[in-house]
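## retry 2 of 3
previous attempt timed out at serialization; input unchanged, resubmitting
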Amino acid sequence: MSIQIFILGTLSEEQCHPYDIKKRILKHLDQTDAKVTEGTIYYNFEVLLKKGLIEKIEIIQTDNRPDKTTYGITEKGRDALQEGIYAAFQKFTNVQSLYAALVNLDKVDLHKIAYLIEDILRKLEKRIAYIKPDRPEIEEFEVDLKDTLLLMKDHAYHSIQSDITWLQKLLHHVQSRALKK
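## retry succeeded, writing output
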């Protein structure tokens, strides 16, 4: 849904062609591991069109070139955009799963986003307490496996701690923006 959130967010600001969306995705998400092909974008446009979330606005025909279709968002699409942004936070798996939602925070209630971030932080704090590297349950394994398991736990612990630190920064950012509104 993240590509669809990005498409809906862009179309909520202006009507455009799928190729324009691809350029924006590359501009906004180029520093990430996002692998977005033209086929993926056109496929998602078709899905959104079939769901009634976007509509064809204009078909431009030029010589020696394929038709160029411009799309816009529908009211149903605006509602789906908000729901998709909230769902991205509710179904949090990692920071990258939020990227498309983050560039569209101006389209949702920031107080609700702050609450959802606080909920993510509570869940991550529980996970990090469970996998804390110095917990003794690894003692029963043989030495080689024990070392490997400790390294895996260490990686998981530091990854979650990194996400917690970043989400705390995001929470502060969202709360300060919410106060300004």
